[in-house]
Automatic annotation (TrEMBL):
It comes from Agromyces tardus. This is Succinate dehydrogenase. Signal peptide: none annotated. The lineage of its organism: Bacteria, Bacillati, Actinomycetota, Actinomycetes, Micrococcales. SUPFAM superfamilies: Fumarate reductase respiratory complex transmembrane subunits. The keyword Zinc-finger does not apply.
Length: 148
């Protein structure tokens, strides 16, 4: 005689110990989404509405903006939250559409490597940006640099 489990019986036993990474990923997506809305609309407002608007955006505008540590941290926070948010979303898609195994591990590894590389490069660009590097030829410097 075959016994059929109750419909509410879990397919696999629940994990009892350790940190629930799926729960914290879910919480992160909600919290980062709210913060990203504020950061992105602040970014768009300052870049497109204040001053001359979109016509003022050029190399000098970015150089002037990133000369202020407030805007450096604003943009880096936006970069980190958005990139981790997007990577976590892609990880969820990989979980949903692939079977556990080597393909899933390779895809998740590729996501991790690409996210880390982009976070490191993006952060370096923001914090090491120098619109007027010392010793640069005057013909290569923007017009607002003192040597130009």
């Amino acid at each position: 005689m075959t016994v059929i489990d109750s419909p509410r019986t879990p397919a696999r036993p629940a994990r009892r110990s350790g940190v629930n990474l799926e729960k914290w990923g879910w919480v992160y997506m909600r919290a980062s989404g709210v913060l990203l809305v504020v950061l992105i609309f602040g970014h768009l407002f300052v870049n497109l509405m204040v001053g001359e608007g979109v016509h003022a955006i050029d190399f000098g505008f970015v150089g002037g903006k990133w000369a202020d540590p407030f805007w450096q941290w604003w943009d880096v926070l936006m970069l980190w939250l958005a990139l981790i948010h997007g990577t976590n979303g892609m990880r969820t898609l990989v979980n949903d559409y692939t079977n556990p195994g080597m393909v899933q591990k390779v895809l998740k590894g590729a996501l991790l490597v690409s996210a880390v590389v982009l976070l490191v490069l993006g952060t370096l660009v923001v914090f090491t940006f120098e619109p007027c590097p010392a010793g640069a030829p005057a013909d290569l410097l923007p017009s607002f640099c003192p040597a130009a």
